Amino acid sequence: MKNNKLSHRVLQSSITSVLAALLCIVIGMAVGFLVLLAINPAHAWGDGFVRILKGGFYDAPYGVGKMLANAAPLVMTGLSVGFAFKTGLFNIGAAGQYTLGAYGALYCAIMLKLPWFVCLLVAAILGGIWGAIPGFFKAYFNINEVITSIMFNWIGLYLVNELVYQNGTGPMYDVRNTRTLNLGKSADYAQSIIPDFGLNKLFQTNSTTIAIFLAAIVAVLIWVVLNKTTFGYELKAVGLNKSAARYAGINEKKNIILSMAIAGALSGFGAGLFYLSNVGQWNPLNSTSLPAMGFNGISVALLASSNPIGTIFSAIFISHISVGGTFLSTKYYPTEIADLISGIIIYLCAFSMLFRGKIQKMLFKNADKTNVNAEPAPAEKANAKKEGK
After folding, report:
1. Residue 250 CB: number of other CB atoms within 10 A?
2. Do the Cβ atoms of 42 and 363 come closer than 8 Å?
3. According to its record, what are the GO cellular component terms (predicted)?
4. Residue 178 carries which DSSP code?
């Protein structure tokens, strides 16, 4: 009976979370349409809202391939932020960890010409190290991880820029393009590119690889670790109450560091998926701002309520909207409209607890009453037995 009630509550929680996220999306899209109307009402529908709504499908199959390529690193940075959330930490340093992961992947690919899976492993290791440092300060000195991770974002950015650029003489630096070497232009780096297994031909792109499937596999693994293992239980216990976890014999310091290290490794892995899929190159001259992919991970995690499986779908949706924004006619609208819509949706996610509460009352209030009436309380059952005797 208790197991049935527990599973019933879990199902209710899942349904309300999904409906709350959908409500955020609907309101955000509606507000976006109003903005389009305010800017240029004559073209708000066909040249504006429809293109954003269709996303990558507006220019299929190329747009769909582009959407999947951009979604892969978003899944990973969303997992990074969401994993830390689940363990009671706020990893706002995903951008810095992503940056270190990018350097690790590119260095192994360009300089060492290593296979792609080794490059991905190194990217994850460097990201993990960069994430573990704020975790160490949190565990042993109780310094807020938000402060240290923000600081290490900028340290990581300028460190990588210096390592790549090296006054214009760095071996990874392409003087003509003022950025890292283009892996896709030379057969020497073919083994460092993540295989596409025909996806590039299918979507008519040069950057759609199996990265999105690798990201989905990692998301499933993270879900299993958090929900089906003792290690995941310990991480969540430390996040909920460090003192209680310590009393239960859990090493809270070790788990805090491990949590941030895993979060950092996920971000670094995402950077490897992005650059080893030949989606883009690192530009040490213009990289004076942190990679947006790291901060977009916060949006993905919020929209998915930090659920690892939900992160896959929220990342694809954010990528869908962003790619749709690139198809807007610049004659009528700025492409940043898509970012505005995404921002509104994420802002509304801050009120998701309120939405979930309202939806819970609307959908399940009567159902709970029915269950209460249908199932007598234990005391009533005991009295009924005595009367029967």
Report:
1. 17
2. no
3. plasma membrane
4. T
Query: How far is 83 from 236, CA to CA, in rounded Å?
Result: 10
From CA 208, how far away is CA 232, in angstroms rounded? 33
Distance CA 202, CA 186 (A): 22
Q: Give the C-alpha separation, 148 to 131, whole Å.
A: 10
Q: How does the average pLDDT of the chain come out, rounded?
A: 87
Residue from 349, 103, 105, 316 nearest 219 by CA: 316
CA dihedral 209, 213, 214, 220 (to 10 degrees): 170
Q: What does the alpha-carbon distance between residue 82 and residue 297 come to, in Å, rounded to a whole number?
A: 8
Q: Map out the domains of the chain as residue ranges.
A: 1-40+336-372, 59-332
The CATH number of domain 59-332 is 3.30.1490: no
Which pLDDT score is estimated for 203?
95
What contacts 24+ positions apart, CB below 8 Å, involve 146-149? 146/90, 146/92, 148/93, 149/91, 149/92, 149/93, 149/96
pLDDT tens-place string over residues 241-262: 888 888 888 999 999 999 999 9
Residue with tokens 């309120």: 354
Q: What is the pTM of this model?
A: 0.88
Residues 51, 273 contacting (CB under 8 angstroms): no
- Residue 388 to residue 106: CA distance in whole angstroms: 78
| Torsion, CA 228, CA 231, CA 237, CA 242, rounded to 10 | -170
For 111, other C-beta atoms within 10 Å of its C-beta total: 12
The dihedrals phi and psi of 180, each to the nearest 5 degrees, come to -65, 160
Tens of pLDDT, residues 329-354: 778 888 778 778 877 877 777 677 67
Bridge pairing between strands 173-174 and 179-180: antiparallel
Which of 290, 289, 388, 305 minimizes the C-alpha distance to 346? 305
Q: Contact 69/279 with Cβ under 8 angstroms?
A: yes
Q: Are 159 and 101 in contact (CB under 8 A)?
A: no
* Alpha carbon separation from 213 to 69, 71, 72, 203, 296 (Å, rounded): 10, 10, 8, 15, 20
275 C-beta neighbours (distance < 10 Å), count = 28
Question: Counting Cβ atoms within 10 Å, is residue 272 exposed (0-12), middle (13-18) or buried (19+)?
Answer: buried
